[in-house]
Amino acid sequence: MKKVIQMFVAVFLAAFLCIYATARLNTFHGYSGKDILTVYNWGDYLDPELIAAFEEEAGMKVIYETFESNEAMLTKIAHGGNAFDVVIPSDYAINKMKEQGLLIPLDHSLLPNLKYIDPRFLGLPFDEGNQYSVPYFWGTLGIIYNPEMLDGRHLNSWHDLWDESLANEVLLVDSAREVIGIGLDRLGYSLNDTDLDHLHEAQQKLFELVPNVKAIVGDEIKMLLANEEASVGLVWSGDAALIIDENPKLNYVIPVEGTNVWFDNMVIPATAKNVEGAHMFINFLLDPENAAQNTEYVGYSTPNAAALEYLPEETTSDQRFYPDPEITDRLELYENLGKRMLAYYNELFLEFKMHRK
Ligand code: SPD
Question: Which residue puts its alpha carbon closest to atom 9 of ligand 1?
Answer without folding.
Answer: 262
